[in-house]
Amino acid sequence: MKRAARLIVFYAGLIALWTLLAKLKIWPPYLFPTPWGVGEALYAGFKDHSYWIAIAVSMRRVLIGYAISVVLGMILGLGVGSSKFLEETMGGLLVSLQSLPSICWWPLALLWFGLSQNAILFVVIMGSLLSVTLAMEDGRKQMPKIFGMAGRNLGASGFQLFWHVLLPASLPFIVSGLKQGWAFAWRSLITAEMLYLSLGLGQVLMVGRDLNDMSAVIAVMVLIIAIGYVVDGVVFKSMERHLQHKWGLTAST
Amino acid sequence: MSTNAHNFPAQVPVRVDPRIPARIGGARGKTGLVVRPIRGVSTNVPKVGLSDICLSYRTHSGERLLALDHINLQVKAGEFLCIVGPSGCGKSTLLHLIAGLHQQTSGEVLIDGKRVQGPGTDRILIFQELGLFPWLTVGQNVEFGMKMKGIGKAEREEKTRYYLRLVHLSQFKDSYIHQLSGGMRQRVALARALATEPDVLLMDEPFAALDAQTRDLLHDELERIWFETGRTIIFVTHNVREAIRLGDRVALLTFRPGRVKREFPIDLPRPRVLEDTHVAHAAREILDELREEINRSLEVEYNVGVKPRVEPAVEQR
Q1: pLDDT (mean) for A170-183
Q2: Which residue of B has its CA nearest to A148?
Q3: How many residue pairs bridge chain A and chain B with CB atoms within 8 Å of each other?
Q4: In terms of Cα–Cα distance, which of A165, A171, A172 is closest to A150?
Q5: Touching check for B101 and chain A: CB below 8 Å?
Q6: Which of B64, B117, B138, B146 has the lowest CB atom count within 10 Å?
Q7: CB contact under 8 A, A245 and B119
Q8: What is the ipTM metric for this complex?
Q9: Which of B127, B145, B177 lies at the smallest CB-CB distance from A155?
Q10: What pTM did the predictor assign?
Q11: pLDDT tens digits for B6-61?
């Protein structure tokens, strides 16, 4: 309860400061809108359904892209984590590739897939695949060897061993990587969406800019932050809590 | 697929051993309905045969280190064999070889006369660290091996219930591993191993980390379960008294390279009590032989006295 009170005070203070700055009219209102101007823009956006549509379109894309990243990343990471050869060769490449901002794949994606949904998906996948892969590789190494041996001893092999033993055993070690992968996927998506008529949140943001409607721009930014926060706070937090309950971990992973 | 308890094979191997007081089989004997009968009980082929097992590996400095040297051991079906030796004699490694989790350099592991090619559910190893799956409940852990075999849900549940009852953990079916005490975890590992219905149970210092009271209790339970299920057990320990408490026979391994130094048949009436003078007497005999090996191992570990024959290499595993 104390924490909630502190949060309320903090955000109330933040909004008050914002209002004060807006009221001082240091910058013209079309460059520095008031909080309720943003609130009105949000209300209008939801009322004419344009924000709902944008959210639906963006969420659909990020979910597909992220899902592909997770599946591919786990397979890749498990391979790299299990084989010394792959680790020595591909491991370094993966780490260096991670320094490449995912939007750098955009020109390539445009040439390969054209101005399409697939180009955006490609950028999203390239954005999150590496963090998932590296997390899985690390998880495979951190995971106690005994689980794999116990699994084989009890008759598991091949895909069974992966699905029933290696994957669940590495989950506590990869959950933070999965979370990071999600954050990268979400950012890559918004960036890619800003670059063409994509119907997603990124495009709605750019429309605000084109119309010189700063309230709308900030409203969409708030939405993007809120969605990122909700997924992190609801999906990943509950996953972590679930794991902690099962494994008996007290510290957050 | 039978879901009915009464349809399970009826011929439970009933061990008639005059040395055993009635309390062990007792009323519980009647519940022995799910247990699969043991194959090959009547034949002369040993259940487990180790012939000329050698294992060597390369150390960091590039030398070859001989860990196991021509191990020959035969274990009869239903026998309880204990292997003792100083730490570093390769006794755990030997169990891993029998389980098929590692490959020996030369020699053969035979089960019912057939060569072992890899892991198989006819031999289940209970690891020293147990290796219970923390993401599964107790019941799901016990069920795991059966699930891998593709056994139907109803039968799995039936057997899980049976084996949990056998180790007195019925109420903890839905608990997670971290919620259990050390002794309880030990019993889950035992139930999980038994539930895959292996002919051979391999146990790697399973009770080493437990307090004395819990260990005594688990000795009783293991002995009872051994009688009820008729499994062949190979039990590795560094505790000589524990070996005598449980084993039909005790094999003593030498320190690096591991060789079978001597085998001791233990012909004491069961159940044996750790404090019993006969146990103490038998232990004395084995301990005298073992002490020599322990001294050698200490010399190597601490680099004192005689120069060791091999460098104290880091054991890789």
Answers
A1: 87
A2: B131
A3: 65
A4: A165
A5: yes
A6: B117
A7: no
A8: 0.73
A9: B145
A10: 0.73
A11: 444 434 444 444 444 433 333 333 344 445 555 445 557 788 888 888 888 887 77
